[in-house]
Prior knowledge:
There is one protein chain. With 154 residues, the chain is mainly α. It has a single domain (5-152), classed as Four Helix Bundle (Hemerythrin (Met), subunit A). 64% of the residues lie in helices and 4% in strands. The protein has helices at residues 5-21, 27-31, 41-59, 75-88, 91-111, 130-152; strands at 121-123, 126-128. Strands 1-2 form a two-stranded antiparallel ribbon. A hairpin with a 2-residue loop joins strand 1 (121-123) and strand 2. The two termini are 24 Å apart.
Amino acid sequence: MYDHKHQIISHYERSIVFVESLADITEEQWRTPIEPGKWSVAEIIGHLTPWDAFVLNQRLPFLFTKESLPKGPDVEEMNTNAARNSRAQSKEETIADFIRQRRQLIDALYQIVDQQWQQPFTIGASELTLHRYFASLVDHDLHHFSQVREFLRM
Length: 154
């Protein structure tokens, strides 16, 4: 689905526009869980930021080197901390943090030469390419954005 570097980057640029549009929702819409037992819009958007930072700082610099990849974080712990932080921040802070971090990731993606997008690398037992790796991250975004749109009836 995401065959080219520019499609991935385009998604990330559109994701900024989508998150910017959330500045117009009410505080109640921002803070209310999207379903009983689920996260709020604030928590959904807020949990994406540390994952972007992880990819930027703990994956991209190591993918095409002989160095071992740093151990990944505990997913549950990282998501719990991100959700807690999002509950403590203002809507404006959470949106600004997302945009800042996402732009840094976009800038890094522009620096990757086209040939590297098809070059295989290994994470754990999985052999991937940047296309496949980022396509899964895009799908993760789209899943959450769909939840938010459904909740807000956008």
